[in-house]
Amino acid sequence: MIVYINGNDNRCKQLAKLMIADGYQIQEDSRLISSCDIIYLGKDGQGFEQVDFKNNAVVLSLLKNQRLCYLSKLKGFNYRYLYSDEDFVVENTHISDEAVIAYMIIDNSISLSNSNVLILGYGHCGRDLAAKLEKFNAKVSISNRSDHYHDEVVEKGYRYIRLDQLTLNGYDFVINTIPSQIIDSNILKTKDVNCKIYDVASTPYGLKTCDRDESYHLLKQLPTKYAYDSSAKALYKAIKRAVDLYA
Fold this sequence. Notes:
It is built from 7 helices and 11 strands. By secondary structure, the chain is an alpha/beta fold. It holds the Pfam family 2-Hacid_dh_C.
């Protein structure tokens, strides 16, 4: 089978090696994408909506592309976004969160132990970060856009803060996982001088560009940069599961 991989980051390079080892042929010329059986488009597949994919080709992206979803029904190719695969999301989250914590340790002169950490958001990423940071003996607080997880957060021993009551006072570290600019200039005024903000959310991220200073760290696309061998293996397993659905 012929495979096209859209991307040249370390994870994509390792993915290509894994697939070649399993007997797949990698097509590197994007002009020949219409001849490919499996097409991995990377983040969201934007810019590939006009491609004439071959009949029964398996077209994949990480995030859902509504246009490709619609076109697949009209043109006879199979489309799936990999973040609909819960196993992949969980595995990818573990890798990303390890990278966040490694970055925090290297980037700071204080220990995570006994530090005060505020996590914004309690989805896959926020929940896993809280559990990992607890192992480092950090004091974890959670703020979420809704109160849906309030009871779970409290039962686990974390401090819960309503987002509409949010201040950054007293925290050594703030980790944002919410893809919304919720940390405005008024909230920033409550931040301690030495507090670091780590933003791992997708666009539009947690702060406006004009509000970012040297204490703000935008950590994008971590699985493509850290532990990319493990990241590629997780991605490859998800691709194989998707392909098997249409076998």
